[in-house]
Amino acid sequence: MPLFGNTFSPKKTPPRKCASLSNLHLLDRSTREIELGLEYGIPTMNLAGQSLKFENGQWVADSGSFTGDRREMQRLRKRNQQLEEENNLLRLKVDILLDMLSETTAESHLMEKELEELKNHSRRRK
């Protein structure tokens, strides 16, 4: 039995009359763009003094906005290519070493089995 009267019972909220009173959702896209000014254009941003714009799903540098040296870009591309080739070579070496390890492990297991069989065979003879 509650001390100060009835238990908590919230009031029921009245039903809403209409979801939206605006008729803008009835307009087609081009009319909405004209009415509301939804023509945004190409997204752009500045990072470290370089202007980038978003085109065809990728960020592309604006022409003429790159302030770095062209030789520096070529050097970085060449270094990147060298590192990718070195990475591929190292991955190949790791694969070869893993194959060698698995082959050696399989051979050692076979030799251990043969040794156990020979021990068992020699014990049976005695």
Any overview of this molecule?
The protein is mostly helical and 126 residues long. The protein has helices at residues 29-36, 70-125; strands at 44-47, 50-55, 58-61. One of its GO terms (biological process) is negative regulation of Wnt signaling pathway. Keywords: Coiled coil. This is Chibby family member 1, beta catenin antagonist.
Strand content: 5-15%
Class per helix and strand makeup:
mainly alpha
Question: Strand count, sense and closure of the main sheet?
Answer: 3 strands, antiparallel
Oligomer: single chain
Helix coverage percent of residues? 40-55%
Series of H and E elements: HEEEH
Q: Mean pLDDT across all residues, rounded?
A: 82
Cα-based radius of gyration, to the nearest Å: 37 Å
Q: How many strand segments?
A: 3
Number of helices: 2
Protein name: Chibby family member 1, beta catenin antagonist
Keywords: Coiled coil
Pfam families: Chibby (PF14645)
Organism: Otus sunia (Oriental scops-owl)
